[in-house]
Amino acid sequence: MGLLWLIVGLLLGFVVGVLPGLSTSNTAALLLPFSVVLPTEQGLILIMSIYAGSAFAGSVPAILVNVPGEAGSAVTALDGYQMAKQGKAGVAIGIARTASTLGGVVSGSLVLLVIAPLGSLALRFGAREMFIVVLLGIVVVSTLVGKDLVKGLLSGVAGLVLATVGGSPLSGQSRFTFGNLQLLDGIQFVPALIGLFAISEMLLLIGSAKPAGSSKGPAGESSLRKDLRDAITGTKVTFRHSGSVAQATGVGIILGIIPGIGTGVSNFISYGIAKRASKHPEKFGTGIPQGVIASEACDNAVGAATLVPTLALGVPGSATMAVVLAQFYIQGIQPGPKVLVDHGPQAMAAVLAVIAASILILPIGIIATAPLVQITRIPVKILVPVVIVLALTASVSYRGSLFDLGVAIAFGLIGYLMRLHGYPVIPLILGLILGPLLEEHLSRALKLANGHLLYFFSSPTAIVLWSILLAVVAYLVVSSIRQRRRLTPDASLSADADAEAMR
Known about the structure:
Blueprint: H1 2-18, H2 24-36, H3 40-57, H4 59-65, H5 73-85, H6 89-118, H7 127-144, H8 149-163, E1 166-167, E2 174-175, H9 189-208, H10 224-240, H11 242-257, H12 262-277, H13 289-305, H14 307-312, H15 319-330, H16 339-342, H17 344-375, H18 380-399, H19 402-420, H20 426-449, H21 460-502
Antiparallel strand pairs: 1-2
Helix pairs in contact: 1-3, 1-17, 2-3, 2-9, 2-15, 2-18, 3-13, 3-15, 3-17, 4-5, 4-6, 5-6, 5-12, 5-13, 6-10, 6-11, 6-13, 6-17, 7-8, 7-20, 7-21, 8-20, 9-18, 9-19, 10-17, 11-12, 11-13, 12-13, 15-20, 18-19
């Protein structure tokens, strides 16, 4: 059954990847109510295989019609589309397939080696240390996701405030329910997550996106024999540039471990590093294999590496990892330093799913490439209503409650307004998920402290964690001051220019 859900998730990921506007996190959120009824391992396999499949599939429309299916695939289009215009579209897709496979397998294998020793540290984490870890995760994600530090923090604080709705975890006393019995259990984060991700994305897509169906791929790409021949050629070309694969994979692993970076930023960084390291940087953007490799190997490497902060610290490394985090909590599993001790098989299943899905990208991708091209021609006027209906159905099916339907719609509108004004939604959902956990660990730690606040600083592990938190806050404050100083001269110059124009 695990292999079956792996293949199903991979195929769903292929479909998601080629459709602009339908991101991996949206689809994972839609499938969350369904994955809950599956055994924990199979539910995680389904979501992680969607992640791996969409990371590769986004390169197909990027190469064929210059329409990236995923944010990270925008970098793939820089050289992939140029190769397609030169009649090498099949080879470019073959390179993307092989680079995605290598990046995912190498990164996933390294994660297996790194994440296991973290379990030995689990016994050092009590309520005091877990409180600091959760607080650190909320601060890091709130400040790294999005362009504005203040907006990220406000979004995270809003999530923490919403997490207080419902019964107190200690006394059971109701808070902010306003007499509504449906709120006694708090705001359910599954319909909230569906609204913030899927519904808000579709509302934005209505006015901003256009169908990708007006373009046509190169003739003959539907031939399975030609696809196979081009795939073999692309594989050979990729292995001839093994140094580029290793470099892009390394960049993806390092950046994937840092929460909030994401594949879009990581791929651009990987492309920039590859261009600087090249003996012929002027060829980048003209249709060279190294450009496609730099993007695709990094893309899947990031997907596996984001599991490290998600599983070891309970801090999601990306939007899709926020859904994975929700999957753990729904199943009664608390991600964090102790997850490998208490729920090792489930954690390892998620990592192994990335490795297995990355391997299967190679054979299944060859067969699925031609049909995937046709999917890019689905008009937005059909895509948006279908996704919204699926989102609303998924929110109701989670608990069979119409109240959750209202929650999904409300959070969809909230997410839409937040995105319009530049507020990131990931800190909000993270605060909503981790808020009860933060309150629980703080309450337990205060009881153990018996009124002595020095208890929070009385262990070596706690001191190290506090030092990391202070270092992060100091770095963010300094970066904010420097950014403000850089913008101030630009603003004054702009004002002088406006005044001169008025004269």
